[in-house]
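Q: Sequence in, structure out?
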Amino acid sequence: VQLVESGGGLVQPGGSLRLSCAASGFPFGSHDMRWVRQTPGQGPEWLSTIDSTGNRKYYSSSVKGRFASSRDNAKNTLYLQMESLKPEDTAVYYCETDIVGRKYRGQGTQVTVSS
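A: Exactly. Output:
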């Protein structure tokens, strides 16, 4: 199982970024996927879950209306479109999933929101 996030970077407040998560080693189209983020010294914060079909999406109150999850099962790729970014969105962003009761998470991509 491999999850590889990309697309992070430095962005000004109010800006946008799109993160990607390339998945391999498991039947991607059969698994719900999540986005979480983490800042130093804090536990992971759940942001969004998207079901295996991409038809059902759930968001935390901190990002609802600003972030949007999507997926392309043909490309085994998960996305997170982030709009109206705030300095408090600065974190390492991870995609993750559960396979046979075990959680898998990528290496993360850093998002820094600063002027």
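The CA atoms of residues 74 and 92 lie 26 Å apart.
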